[in-house]
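FORM 12-B: Structure-to-Sequence Request
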């Protein structure tokens, strides 16, 4: 609670006068506005899901997430959205009453709250409150922890009283509500902008579909480990991440792997091909390439939470330090970096958990390894450019393996995949694959240009005597090049 400034009696050389204090307390409008202004609605909802998952981690304290494939099995979070209300309910253990009284509903994490020493993602203590105020003006939070059931009410008129910052709390007796332990948040008095977003069935469907995609991207690892997420009754499926791996032969398609521990932050990295490099025909098919490109790039994970998904910018090393900028010829390259720590403040993620903190020293060191891995596979792609059919002998021989099998302990990886042997390098452990090389390693360059369809058909008719021949533009271009090259060499031999 914030009190009004008080007048104080002061004396100076026998003269008594009144001294006052300047108000320094924030206004509620300012506080709520700053919390909610710079976060997207979908990200605010993800904050609520993060709280559910952190609850699971507290329930399973002492169990290693990385080595337990069904870590989240049996736990769920169900979301219901309509134009007038928002509800999220979970069975993830609930909020201990003393935590609710002292910390959970404060606007920010108290300095007196001890660190939990758990691999959670909650850092600043604002996620639940920010999400509630982003969506609506009032809410009721029901929670059951250790069979203690209570509710906390955020009244619609809470923002009107600058002196009262606390929320009413009430014990409940209900044998049917949250019987497994968990939390239910009912938000009402939906804010005008949000109500407009959900105002019609079509608008609501569009929002839900976009939210599902965002959840798939952000929580694939968690869903794969058994966590159930539903929105309006629809269960969300994960987007599994895998890489090509050929364990037959020394020079074959394998990923680049790296592991290192920085203080209390453990890092696992894997990058390689998830699909064969594109053929010239693939590059000609711009629509197909657009779909494939969405699967390429770097994914960054902090304590199981995806904070950056399939990034192809300088944030993840593209276009820096000798690494080329992303191009469609690199659509087969995918990488993942996993940061883990029992002190989430040390993880290189932003407050919204939807971006990377580029000022992090740990991330700067890891980014060097990311560029190292990128260079391996961009160089490989360039080396085989123009010889795609020959290269596919290697990439199609490789099998697709899940990321889970490549990010365990070094001993586990080396046991399950004997061809992988880590070597120590600059404080970390690296597996640097030996990739196949073309027999003729002369440098190649791609020739690319565009012409009208009618002009291409004129050439097709000339080359094949059939204007409707099925030759692709790349095949036509290659045949034209060979035609001219033969004439040029014959002329040189005259």
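FORM 12-B RESPONSE
SEQUENCE OUT:
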């Amino acid at each position: 609670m914030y009190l009004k400034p008080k007048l104080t009696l002061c004396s100076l050389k026998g003269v008594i006068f009144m001294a006052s204090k300047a108000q320094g307390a924030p206004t509620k409008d300012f506080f709520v506005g700053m919390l909610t202004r710079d976060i997207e609605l979908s990200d605010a909802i993800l904050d609520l899901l993060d709280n559910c998952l952190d609850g699971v981690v507290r329930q399973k304290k002492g169990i290693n997430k990385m080595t337990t494939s069904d870590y989240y099995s049996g736990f769920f979070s169900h979301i219901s959205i309509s134009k007038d209300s928002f509800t999220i309910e979970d069975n993830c253990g609930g909020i201990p009453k003393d935590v609710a009284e002292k910390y959970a509903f404060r606007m920010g994490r108290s300095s007196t709250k001890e660190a939990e020493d758990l691999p959670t993602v909650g850092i600043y203590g604002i996620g639940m409150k920010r999400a509630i105020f982003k969506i609506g003006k009032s809410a009721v939070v029901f929670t059951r922890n250790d069979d203690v059931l209570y509710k906390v009410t955020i009244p619609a008129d809470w923002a009107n009283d600058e002196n009262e910052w606390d929320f009413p709390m009430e014990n409940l007796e209900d044998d049917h509500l949250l019987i497994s332990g968990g939390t239910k948040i009912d938000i009402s008095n939906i804010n005008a902008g949000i109500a407009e977003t959900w105002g019609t069935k079509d608008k609501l469907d569009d929002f839900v579909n976009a939210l599902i995609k965002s959840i798939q991207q952000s929580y694939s690892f968690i869903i794969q480990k058994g966590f159930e997420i539903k929105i309006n009754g629809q269960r969300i499926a994960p987007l599994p991440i895998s890489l090509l791996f050929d364990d037959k032969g020394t020079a074959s398609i394998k990923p680049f792997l790296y592991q290192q521990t920085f203080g209390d932050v453990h890092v696992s990295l894997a990058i390689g091909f998830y699909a064969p490099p594109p053929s010239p025909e693939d590059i000609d098919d711009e629509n197909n390439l657009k779909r494939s490109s969405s699967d390429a790039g770097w994914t960054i994970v902090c304590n199981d939470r995806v904070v950056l998904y399939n990034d192809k910018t300088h944030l993840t090393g593209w276009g820096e330090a000798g690494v080329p900028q992303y191009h469609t010829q690199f659509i087969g390259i995918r990488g993942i970096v996993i940061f883990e720590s029992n002190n989430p403040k040390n993880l290189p993620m932003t407050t919204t958990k939807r971006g990377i903190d580029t000022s992090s020293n740990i991330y700067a060191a890891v980014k060097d390894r990311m560029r190292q891995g990128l260079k391996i596979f961009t160089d490989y792609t360039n080396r085989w450019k123009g010889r795609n059919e020959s290269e596919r002998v290697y990439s199609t021989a490789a099998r697709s393996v899940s990321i889970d099998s490549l990010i365990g302990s070094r001993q586990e990886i080396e046991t399950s995949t004997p061809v992988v042997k880590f070597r120590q390098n600059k404080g970390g452990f690296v597996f640097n694959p030996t990739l196949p090389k073309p027999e003729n390693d002369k440098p190649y360059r791609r020739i690319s240009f565009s012409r009208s369809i009618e002009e291409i058909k004129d050439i097709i008719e000339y080359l094949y005597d059939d204007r409707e021949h099925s030759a692709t533009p790349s095949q036509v271009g290659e045949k034209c090049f060979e035609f001219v090259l033969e004439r040029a060499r014959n002329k040189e031999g005259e």
